[in-house]
TrEMBL record, chains A, B:
Taxonomic lineage: Bacteria, Bacillati, Actinomycetota, Actinomycetes, Kitasatosporales
Keyword terms, alphabetized: DNA-binding
Keyword DNA-binding: yes
Residue ranges flagged as DNA-binding region: 38-57
Protein name: TetR family transcriptional regulator
Pfam families per record: TetR_C_16 (PF17920), TetR_N (PF00440)
Residue span, HTH tetR-type domain: 15-75
Length: 201, 201
């Protein structure tokens, strides 16, 4: 009943199997969250033996780290973001975040990472390091703004909140709001956090 | 070894025991997240039999719903928020959110709720209903702004993101940022989402 053509075909190579496990893991982490994702569940969904999952990835934390790793080089993204006009950095960053959520290479990774950060310190640390320290702090500093760490953290709060509200909590109408409208709505917030006044007088 | 003076004293009344379980549950949900909180762990920490936890609260979901229930009447908060000047609603809402996080009666509840929303649909639903539909949507509508649902959802994204960044992920320097500075930094964002232009032209 559960036999599939794939099982009957040629045995997939090692790197394909590894990739299959990784893709399945990413989907599980994004949809179920960290705590409810199990190596056994991933193995079942990927139709491989659970021992094979352990063979490729030594444990859930390692598997998560690789599955949720953001597929970008912070230095490259940073220089691209800093290349345009300073007064449009909010829009460029909003576009970058939406790109990351929608591109096939990264679909689900940012969601998995932010979902997991609610319970897993390792995921929270990835956000602090990969998103904040390696990207947002140098971005705020590169824009010549004082208080770069505070600006970066506020920027991160809106990015994290947008992903939470749109993809995890599902606050209507955000899940169905068009990309253009969303980027335009959020851009001035990111712009002010990165370059504008931080008080409301 | 584990005997405490409390055990030797007068047996606490039913309502005190119930309250003790509830306070312990709130702390566990806020610190551990939904999935890692167990009835047994709560019972152990509260020094009561796990059967007593089940007696008062029929299961983890019910216990969570009560532990994370926000201790306010949306109608009362709403009329208070709408009472002041329209152009200062962002600041009043920022103050309200920070009050909620800091007041003893609600300390931990908002954090527990948002942390749990990452994995537990019941918690996500509480946010959509109690925070968004009963408070933020009527607030945006009461301010006479068009597109009230989108405005409310964007507002919710920043509120959720602030709690995530400051209390759950811990993006420095937000955990140590003073209340006044934080309210001032976030207020213009909430103000624009609720009453300002939603595009960045």
């Amino acid at each position: 009943m559960t036999a599939t053509p794939r099982r009957a075909g040629r045995r997939p190579g090692t790197s394909q199997t590894r990739q299959l496990i990784l893709d399945t893991a990413r989907r599980h982490f994004a949809e179920l969250g960290y705590d409810r994702t199990t190596l056994r569940g991933i193995a079942t969904a990927a139709e491989v033996d659970v021992a094979l999952v352990s063979h490729f990835f030594s444990g859930k934390q390692r598997l998560f780290a690789e599955a949720a790793a953001l597929p970008y080089d912070p230095a490259v993204v940073l220089s691209r973001l800093l290349a345009g006009p300073r007064e449009q950095i909010g829009r460029r960053l909003a576009d970058q975040v939406l790109d990351l959520i929608e591109a096939p290479a990264s679909r689900g990774r940012l969601i998995a990472l932010i979902r997991a950060a609610a319970s897993e310190e390792g995921a929270a640390q990835l956000i602090r390091e990969r998103i904040n320290r390696e990207l947002l702090v140098p971005l705020a500093a590169g824009l010549g703004s004082p208080d770069a760490p505070l600006r970066a953290a506020l920027t991160g709060s809106q990015v994290v909140g947008l992903v939470m509200a749109r993809h995890i909590v599902g606050i209507d109408p955000l899940p169905g709001t068009g990309r253009e409208q969303l980027a335009a709505a959020v851009a001035p917030t990111l712009q002010r956090y990165l370059t504008g006044p931080l008080d409301d007088v």
